[in-house]
Amino acid sequence: MERNRIILFDGECNFCDASVQFIIKRDPYKHFSFASLQDDVGRKFRKDYQIPDNVDSLVLIENEKAYTKSGAALRIAKKLDGLWHLAFLFVIIPPAIRDIAYDYIAKNRYKWFGKKELSCMLPSPEERKRFIS
What Pfam families has UniProt attached to this entry (predicted)? Predict the structure, then answer.
């Protein structure tokens, strides 16, 4: 599988896990592969793309460039089935303004949605192929 769009996500975050499941269900063409920020693969991508340690939620690596915060979310939405691609229109709003909402959700995600304990979602064999290890 060509891995030209990689989503790095917080593997300890319930909201992030739900977001990955949301993306998988709306990505029938398998545009995206996934890796946790906390595992070895995620740490290697962080180093290779010079992603700061304080970035702890969502990162999209696309066309050899790393996107974070609302920029990553909008670029992901652009490739999803249904009307989700229309969310990309919000790209006309300056990132500093878009990221205020993104940062608010990211800051509160553990409080609102919880943090994973030792158990995690077991992807189907088909979904498992999309996770980089």
Answer: DCC1-like (PF04134)
3-state SS, residue 59: strand
Torsion 121-37-20-107 (CA) sign: positive
pLDDT tens digits, 31-47 = 999 999 989 999 999 99
pTM for the full predicted model? 0.86
In a domain, 132, yes or no: no
Residue 28 burial (CB count, 10 A): 9
Which pairing describes strands 5-9 and 33-36: parallel, antiparallel, or unpaired? parallel
Residue 133 forms part of a structural domain: no
User: Sign (positive/negative) of CA torsion 109, 114, 116, 120?
Assistant: negative
How many helices (H) and strands (E) the chain has is answered by: 5, 4
Strands 65-68 and 59-62, bridge-based pairing: antiparallel
